[in-house]
Amino acid sequence: MDIMKLFGKSKEVDYSLDSENIPQHIAIIMDGNGRWAKKRQLPRSLGHRAGGEALRDVIETAAVIGLKYLTIYAFSTENWSRPQDEVSSIMQLLVEYLKKEAKELHKNNVKIITIGDLSRLPRDLQQEVEKVKELTKDNTGLRVNIALNYGGRDELVRAFKKISSEIVAGNRTTDEINEELIANYLDTAEIPEPELLIRTSGECRLSNFMIWQLSYTEFWFTDCYWPDFKGKDLVEAIQDYQNRERRFGKV
Ligand code: IPE
Ligand code: IPE
Ligand code: MG
Question: Of the bound ligands, which one is closest to the alpha carbon of residue 35?
Fold first, then answer.
């Protein structure tokens, strides 16, 4: 992997990674757009715009590192409780982002997938999501998984509803319910669990993100606001991850 090429050779900073121990899947809670804007006396919507721009560098770095999955928390089921104008501007920015980045993502062999309940999103955003999924569906590089109107509890509720209706219809029995079956009914059925979770902006909580999938994930927190997060921060998080011992309940 040519991480050096990406950052320019630096004597002070060590960007080396153990290529035998690169996580397959990293999930990111991209937090701090609002505070980034406030610090600059800008409207929150400009913080969200800057947040979208920060993604480019992170996606590029993730691809160079050879990550297979990058899940990004873009909008939670709780974020509908924000002021109406902020919600609208986030939805509009997401449409714009997908329109603007689709070609480049496709060129870089990125495949766009999503988790969350898309049915509640504005029509134009749903259409844009479908378009970029269709465009990138055969790509074999990094999978960028966008969590949109996503909530871990909502995901479990939807999964339990699907399982119950199959039981009611006589296609399954309650004896079949186990961890594997539940995992297969989640939005992430096709996706391995993240080895590493990153949250920016200094907050140390999950905010309803992937509560099932993160059971044994390593967490990495940084005070950096999301719009300031760069590919080199991603590398730093992975370096820290590589120094950890994952025990999974064993000794
Ligand atoms: C994250 O930044 C973006 C979304 C939740 C959509 P915030 O908007 O939460 O930024 P802060 O936490 O208010 O700084
Ligand atoms: C989590 O951030 C959701 C996203 C990053 C999309 P929030 O800013 O909404 O989380 P809380 O409300 O501070 O927990
Ligand atoms: Mg926040």
Answer: 1
